[in-house]
Inverse folding.
């Protein structure tokens, strides 16, 4: 009889300690994560043609022809200060009717969104808090200047060092 | 003050004054080591490969095509009678009309000519490198910046000049010419590089289509905030020195250069640019160089010509280009002396080709059945050069065929002496060890 009790007790222990089938997870949830990186890894400079191909697509929403890009490349090579000549070329682009820019009203009414969108558009990243704060303050401090337009913001992003790298 | 404290402070101050250089108001770290000989230098690379026999030795066709026709084609530079037969070096049909002389007194009469110098390389890029760096390194690869500092970097670092004080005007963007405005030397490099234009591109049809319609922004209401934003963005992105894509001008300089680009298109359309009376070829490059001189009055401007390199396959074109290059050089000197009061009497102009040409011809004949000449043999290391301006001895010819004096690498040190920082350039130890200032060679 005691042997029977021991056997039942042992079976009970084995029953409770047995391996259990795992609950298989069949549904995965996606955690939303920003995919825009920072500027630390931009260490390759764009060629002149890459730079202007990306820039014109950005500003005109359509790519330039290879003839235009080759011509632009030659002009950039003909000037020692690449940033300067890019600024002149950018202002040449800004002087056309095809350039697509946000309105001044949007810049002033939705400044934070304008700044974030501009960083993503040109630098493929979100601004840091410090950058966002600086730009919001700068735009607000220039509200009274009627000549302060999105064109100037876009021009400064287009001519910046960071935009020359990827 | 306690004695011990006084001694300690005095010792610290003395050591500090010895170790830390004194920053002068001009931005220079050290006072100039020699008194400048002139305020400005214009350095003309009379380039493309100039054969000694056809140029300074004035043998015209006698030493190249076996015709008994000798004479001087460079009548603005050199004394000597022109050829009297087989005239083909001028303009018009068959090149029979020589270009009228510009200078009433030749450069030879006004300055000093080194009639037999030695080049470092018989090739273009090696030769150009030796001219701008003063270095004896002949194995400079194409598509890379010079290994050793250029004349511009010495000027900016030791002379304390800003970017718009130094200019390199190239006649094309080929042959890696745009890379000669700065070396990639770690102690110098692009932060000390010169502004560069290849005017035939910048202000030619390509430049017109790309730059001419540029907006002129209001300096305070538009440019100022734009520069502030750009500078903020640049400060947030730490670009490494070696990754700089080009030289950097200050905001004020950038504004001035933008105005220059815009005004040049306007003056070009109005026919107001200073151009040599007979244009074509290298003449336009010299005209734009004159325009840069007029506007910026730089401390140092280097301008490159290369039209004479057609000699590989067209000897007639070569002698015509040589005659035009002399015309362009005469125009430039005359323009500086008569049209730019701020530079007149304060400028020394130096000139030299980057290499000569071969002794023997190649088999290619042109329309006149004259043979072409390549470059690369010992004869192509024979060149002549010179200088003219204040403190340069007038009417002096140094050296001759039997007695060569001077090397092309001397020009870098000569420019350093003219602008007042020769010892620093020598002390940097990066130029040809045999190079001397041409003033020492005299």
């Amino acid at each position: 009889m005691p042997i029977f009790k021991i056997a039942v007790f042992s079976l009970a222990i084995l029953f409770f300690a047995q391996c259990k089938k795992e609950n298989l997870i069949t549904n995965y949830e996606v955690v939303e994560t920003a995919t825009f990186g920072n500027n630390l890894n931009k260490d390759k400079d764009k060629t002149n043609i890459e730079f202007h191909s990306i820039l014109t697509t950005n500003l005109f929403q359509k790519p330039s022809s290879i003839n235009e890009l080759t011509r632009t490349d030659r002009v950039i090579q003909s000037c020692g200060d690449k940033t300067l000549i890019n600024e002149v070329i950018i202002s040449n682009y800004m002087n056309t009717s095809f350039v697509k820019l946000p309105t001044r009203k949007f810049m002033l009414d939705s400044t934070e969104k304008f700044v974030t969108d501009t960083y993503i558009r040109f630098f493929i990243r979100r601004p840091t808090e410090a950058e966002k704060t600086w730009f919001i303050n700068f735009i607000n401090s220039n509200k009274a200047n009627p000549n302060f337009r999105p064109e100037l913001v876009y021009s400064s992003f287009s001519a910046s060092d960071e935009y020359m790298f990827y | 003050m306690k004695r011990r404290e006084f001694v300690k402070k005095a010792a610290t101050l003395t050591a500090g004054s010895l170790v830390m250089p004194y920053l002068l108001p001009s931005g220079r770290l050290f006072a100039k080591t020699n008194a400048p000989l002139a305020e400005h230098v214009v350095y003309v690379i009379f380039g493309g490969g100039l054969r000694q026999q056809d140029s300074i030795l004035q043998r015209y066709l006698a030493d190249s095509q076996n015709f008994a026709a000798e004479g001087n084609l460079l009548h603005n530079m050199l004394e000597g009678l022109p050829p009297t037969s087989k005239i083909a070096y001028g303009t018009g049909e068959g090149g029979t009309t020589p270009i009228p002389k510009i200078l009433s007194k030749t450069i030879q009469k006004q300055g000093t000519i080194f009639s037999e110098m030695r080049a470092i390389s018989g090739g273009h890029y090696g030769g150009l490198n030796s001219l701008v760096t003063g270095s004896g390194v002949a194995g400079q690869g194409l598509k890379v910046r010079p290994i050793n500092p250029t004349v511009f970097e010495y000027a900016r670092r030791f002379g304390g000049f800003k970017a718009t004080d130094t200019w390199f005007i190239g006649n094309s963007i080929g042959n890696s010419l745009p890379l000669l405005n700065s070396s990639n030397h770690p102690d110098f490099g692009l932060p000390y590089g010169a502004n560069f234009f290849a005017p035939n591109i910048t202000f030619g049809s390509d430049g017109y289509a790309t730059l001419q319609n540029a907006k002129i922004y209001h300096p305070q209401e538009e440019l100022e905030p734009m520069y502030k934003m750009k500078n903020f963005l640049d400060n947030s992105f730490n670009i490494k020195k070696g990754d700089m894509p080009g030289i950097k001008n200050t905001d004020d300089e950038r504004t001035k250069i933008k105005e220059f680009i815009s005004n040049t298109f306007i003056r070009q359309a109005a026919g107001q640019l200073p151009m040599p009376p007979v244009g074509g070829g290298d003449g336009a490059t010299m005209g734009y160089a004159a325009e840069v001189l007029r506007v910026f009055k730089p401390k140092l401007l280097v301008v490159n010509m290369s039209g004479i390199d057609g000699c590989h396959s067209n000897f007639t074109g070569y002698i015509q280009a040589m005659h035009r290059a002399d015309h362009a050089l005469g125009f430039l000197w005359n323009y500086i002396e008569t049209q730019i009061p701020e530079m007149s009497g304060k400028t020394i102009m130096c000139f030299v080709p980057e290499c000569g040409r071969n002794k023997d011809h190649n088999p290619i004949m042109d329309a006149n059945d004259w043979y072409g000449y390549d470059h690369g043999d010992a004869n192509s290391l024979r060149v002549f050069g010179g200088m003219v301006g204040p403190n340069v001895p007038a009417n002096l010819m140094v050296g001759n065929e039997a007695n060569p004096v001077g090397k092309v690498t001397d020009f870098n040190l000569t420019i350093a002496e003219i602008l007042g920082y020769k010892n620093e350039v020598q002390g940097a130890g990066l130029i040809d060890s045999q190079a001397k200032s041409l003033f020492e060679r005299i």
About this structure: The helical segments of chain A are 2-17, 48-60, 66-77, 82-94, 104-109, 111-123, 129-141, 150-158. The two ends of chain A are 82 Å apart (CA to CA). Residues 102-148 of chain A form one domain.
